[in-house]
Amino acid sequence: MNLFDKPAATIAPTGRLILVRHGESEGNRDRIFTTSPSIGLTDAGREQARAAAERIAAKFKPRIIVSSPYVRAQQTAEIIAARLELPIVIEPNLHERRFGDLRGQPYDAAEVARVFDGANHWHWRPPGDDSESLEDVRLRVGPALERLAAENPLDELVVVSHGAVMLSAWAHLTGSIEGVTITPNCGIVLVEHERGRLGLPVPIIDTAPVINEE
Fold first, then answer.
1. Which candidate in 24, 91, 96, 213 is catalytic?
2. What pTM does this model have?
3. What residue segments make up the domains of the chain, in order of their start?
């Protein structure tokens, strides 16, 4: 189902966004929605980040690392940046979806709340004043990626974010929510672009099982 009236197209690339989901976080490990942006990576998450750094080093020549402001993403970015000897910049609009009153709750709580609410998955917001739908996430993430591409038309950038961010980016880039799935921890998705116009997302490496949206 096409929600965004954005025709899919294949373009000749002159730049690349290398999208990376952060490594396993403490929330992922415990299967709860994290309570704070300051929650960090587990030992397994750090290993995933090191493996992602090696794969990026073997395939790409990025100029800079762009990261979500959340600690789990920044820690992933720091590991990749150390391997590639690159600077890190923070992009505020890449932060994870806000889960409202579900913070600290098990993942299953989202399914219970969604059924009770009765709204469709893409536009459903968790309970709580500061929560976001996936569409809310898309509306801030899509323009952020377009701006990064426009400002860096000839460069490769590593962009470290979150499960719901990458899910929403996929829908934004393809113009559809059909078949959209969550990228695993430290999974990599390549987005090529020309003159600031983003192409279709291409999964490069899946390094771990799908865990959740966060």
1. 96
2. 0.87
3. 15-205
